[in-house]
Amino acid sequence: METQKNPNRSIVLSGLIMSLGVMSLLLGSKLIPQVILLCILMFFITNSRYMWFDIIFKTCRRDLTALVRFVQLRYQIWKFERSRSTVPKIFRAIFQKHPKKIAFTCDNVSWTYEEINEYSNQIGHYFKKQGFRRGDAIALYMENSIEFICLWLGLAKIGVVTALINTNLRTQSFLHSIKAAKCLGLICSSELNDAVTEVMVELSGVKLYILNKKSRGEEASMVPDSITSLNEELSASPKSDLTEDINEGDPTDKLLFIYTSGTTGMPKAAVITNNRYLFMSVGVRVMLRVQDDDILYNPLPLYHASGVIIASGQSLLGGSTVVIRKKFSASNFWQDCIASKCTVACYIGEICRYLLAVPEKPHDKQHKVRLMFGNGLKPQIWTKFTTRFQIKQIGEFYGATEGNSNLVNIDNKVGAVGFVPRLAGAVYPVVLIKVNPETEEPIRNSKGYCIRCQPGEPGMFVGKINPKKTINSFAGYADKEASEKKILRDVFSKGDQYYNSGDILVMDNYGYFSFRDRTGDTFRWKGENVATSEVEAVISNTIGLKDAIVYGVEVPNVEGRAGMVAILDTDNTLNLDGLDENLKKMLPAYARPLFVRIIEKVPLTGTYKLKKKDLQTDGFNINTARALTSQQCESDIIRFMVGTQSLKLNQNQVHIIEENEETRSLHTTVCSHSQGEIWHISASPGDPNIISTTYNTLTDDNICVMKSAIWKINEDKLDLLTLLPTSQFGNDIKHTLFHISDPTKALSIIDNHYVIWDFNESDAKSFSSATLEGKGHPQFTCGKWNPHHNVSQVVTSNDSHVRGWDIKTSKQCWIIENAHTQSVRDLDFNPNRQYYLATCGDDGFTKFWDIRNTTEPIISRSDHSHWVWAVRYNHFHDQLVLTSSSDSQVILICVAGISSEPAGHVITGDDNLESPKERLEEGVLATYEEHEDSVYAVEWSTGDPWTFASLSYDGS
Q1: Which residues form the AMP-dependent synthetase/ligase domain (predicted)?
Q2: 831 in helix, strand or coil?
């Protein structure tokens, strides 16, 4: 292929000729000779002869289809602009057209357009009466529901902007979101009342409202006086139309604040105007041919643009019925579609891969879904997905919530996020520009202007800003400074402005765009740029669609960043040799990760995007640790034991750390543990030299397996006493704990079993066990002995639930359902009050329960900003509790109100009963910030009530 001497002239002439050719085709077959003649003429005019003939031949039908639909879209937008249409105005027209048609369905309850209209009117009237005015902002913090739609629609009718808060946010990030949008009010659902109550002190000046779906008696007992219950207030509000308020609305008015996912920091509030909502929703409808009689399945969170605009907008602005799922479920996805007779469904992020990971079932193809649209379907699983589930059309699209540049795939091109005809730049001005991979800044030529990328050359996707056109306008964020950072100036001419997407895409010769990476995710190694999304796709396919997160980590004294992959391997089936072999075949040397981290949980945003920031911060460390225990049997000695997690399995160790009380110095004895990485360690109550470890090791076939064993410490080495026969129960061993008082018994938590062992120095037999049954093979996350009632109970957690088991009958004797909104990580019993239990979890909360009444926690605290990994009662003073978290903090709190010491005091000094007693205040007593990594374990000493140890992942 020769280089064009005058590429602009060739492109313009080719475009003119192609247009004439398309017109000839439209005028009839009699003019085919003219078309052929034109193609011959083009052959002589352009230097890139074959290329342009090939492009026109292969894209003519696609581009003509796109042209027709784009003209229809522009006409629709023009009509909206001419009539000064807003979302409430268009919804009013849809409602008047078919008031009795079902608009939304959720939890088997359906609402008609008439019901949506009346309820949203009640909302508008009520908040107008409360003093809210056009331009004010109210935060909406609520799980998916039809009421969610009605609330923001009702507020929109009176011109109030709704800030849609991510329901996963807590404490500081939650408060940040409210303040970023300058909200004057907050509406929450009853499910999220605890999170609001936790930060009420910092919400002074913000009017608080709650929509409660529980009975009136429950509502009264749960809602603080400072929060207004909307249930009765709205029922008394008029249903009459808000005609004057709706007519006053303008298409440029702010409609919603939708927050960025927070993959790279605190979420930013993106401004969604009425114009932006109309374009995004109607654009997908027109380009993908969504019809009035379609039923759309929406499992996406309504605080996200895809859920609240692109999916819900098909009902509000188009008249299609939308089925809302409260929370995405891979196992129920197709069953829901079948039950609701859905014809269209939407996806985002990793959802399609999760659907593929579910074992094949007959109903995979028994649905009526013809179209699925969304963004995030990886090219590597595209064909497999459409083939297995028999999806006729995938409408993959690209676009940021706050952006002005969007693409959509209308012709099923595998791997494409959309296209722009090569000759349509003037009509739809989006382009790829060259960017420096190190600085992430655009590369400019000698005149100071940006450089366009050639086909096949990755570049940053930018879109020209034109405030006068709905399609090209950019409203930005609530934070003007953040908005300014997204604008590039003087891109191709003096004074022009382009929206900077921050995404790296690549366009082929035919105008198809494919997503390559985020600018911040691409890293440079050995002089080459590594696109993490491509490496992730290769690894995920190689290991059976498991979660794989690829990122670059800094290596001391080495230029660039080395590749590292974090892999979710809860069933311990990862074959590292097989992975290495496949990566050598499929990836160049510079793109292969040098480090592998096995993780128990994938950090995801609420919209199923992978969060890499925390993992990048952790980096790599070949000598990490997460197993910690205190000495149990000799209470006069301050001794702790730590187990390491070295990447070199045969170099792991058990460190025995003992404090000299006279000199306050530490003495450490190191014992080799060559069997593998230690995930948990436990000390015997009967012998200071007996311990148990739970560890992973490699089989002869290089398969990673978990094992648990009893050891005897012999000076500086470990002698194996008993290898527990755990394989009969499963491979995922969480831990093994010695009995509270009987040194010949131990408890193991394995997959969905708890197993109690009776062992001696050469053998171990299980004499009691129980199995957790349920859909989807539920697994325990942790377990403990209940030290009370003669140790007759075992307590376990699975997902968000906590269960008590009777050892004699192996039956469940009590349960705390949904103890946390996310996985329960740890639990601990009050040593003195037999019914009091503390739990902690991935929702960032520590909760205290009375197991005689498990409907609500006695105390619920959110002291950490991330997952809470450990909670421990002080053995001597049960009002003192330690917690540790992946936010790198250890926090000491006082819960005197539920302790065994009614005065709430502790004895100061050296436990001298005659010394003065000091009353402690409830709440946080101290925060320890010495760690720089996730703190996975914390333990009180059994020898001194004032001494504790904590252990972070970096081994400190």
Answers
A1: 95-443
A2: coil
Instruction: Give the CATH superfamily of 422-520.
Output: Luciferase; Domain 3 (2.30.38.10)
Residues in the chain, overall count: 956
Spatial separation of the C-alpha atoms in residues 720 and 652, rounded to whole Å: 15
List pLDDT tens digits, range 890-931.
Answer: 999 999 889 887 655 555 544 444 444 566 788 999 999 888
- How buried is residue 175: exposed, middle or buried, by Cβ count under 10 Å (0-12/13-18/19+)? middle
Side-chain-facing half-sphere of 760: CA atoms under 13 Å: 2
Please give the Cα distance from 644 to 646 (Å, whole number): 6
> Could you tell me the residue ranges of all domains in the chain?
7-78, 84-412, 422-520, 533-618, 621-771, 804-956
Question: How far is it between the farthest Cα atoms of the chain?
Answer: 112
Tokens standing for residue 802:
């906590």
pLDDT tens, position by position, 172-186: 778 889 999 999 999
The secondary structure element, H or E, covering residue 586 is: helix 576-586
User: What pTM, to 2 d.p., does this model score?
Assistant: 0.62
Say what percent of the chain tops pLDDT 90.
44
CA–CA separation, 671 vs 796, rounded Å? 31
Fold exhibited by the domain 84-412: Rossmann fold (3.40.50)
Query: CATH classification of 621-771, choosing from 3.40.50.1980, 2.130.10.10, 2.40.30.20, 3.40.1700.10?
Result: 2.130.10.10
Asked if domains 84-412 and 621-771 share a fold, the reply is: no
- Token pair, residue 568, equals 């979710």
C-beta of residue 285 within 8 angstroms of C-beta of residue 310: no
174: Cβ–Cβ under 8 A, 6 or more apart, which residues? Answer: 141, 165, 195, 199
In the CATH scheme, what is the homologous superfamily, with its name and number, of domain 804-956?
A: YVTN repeat-like/Quinoprotein amine dehydrogenase (2.130.10.10)
d(CA 646, CA 953): 11
Give the model's confidence band at 234: pLDDT under 50 very low, under 70 low, under 90 confident, else very high: very high
Counts for the chain of helices (H) and strands (E), in that order? 21, 54
Taking 90 as the threshold, does the pLDDT of residue 857 lie above it?
yes
If we measure between CA atoms, which residue out of 429, 495, 89 comes closest to residue 253?
89
873's enclosing H/E stretch is: strand 868-873
State the Cα–Cα distance between residues 565 and 580, nearest whole angstrom: 12
Strands in 631-763 per DSSP E? 639-646, 653-660, 665-672, 677-683, 690-698, 704-714, 717-723, 733-738, 745-750, 753-759
Q: Are 782 and 758 in contact (CB under 8 A)?
A: no
Query: Beta strand pairing status for 407-408 and 371-375?
Result: unpaired
Half-sphere exposure of 803 (CA within 13 A, CB side): 24
* Strand pairing category for 948-952 and 935-940: antiparallel
Distance CA 121, CA 898 (A): 46
Residue 518 carries which side chain, given as an amino acid letter?
R
CB-based contacts of 284, cutoff 8 Å, min separation 6: 290, 310, 313, 314, 373, 395, 397, 408
Q: Are strands 677-683 and 690-698 parallel, antiparallel or unpaired?
A: antiparallel
The CATH number given to 533-618 is 3.30.300.30
How many CA atoms does the CB half-sphere of 5 hold within 13 Å? Answer: 3
The helix (run of H) or strand (run of E) holding residue 139 is: strand 137-141
* Paired strand residues for 837: 829, 849
Reported as a pLDDT band with limits 50, 70 and 90, residue 480 is confident
Q: What is d(CA 816, CA 836) in angstroms, rounded to the nearest whole number? A: 13
Q: How far apart are CA 64 and CA 70, in angstroms?
A: 10
Q: pLDDT at position 379, please?
A: 87
**Range scoring the smallest mean pLDDT among 213-222, 367-376, 690-699:** 213-222
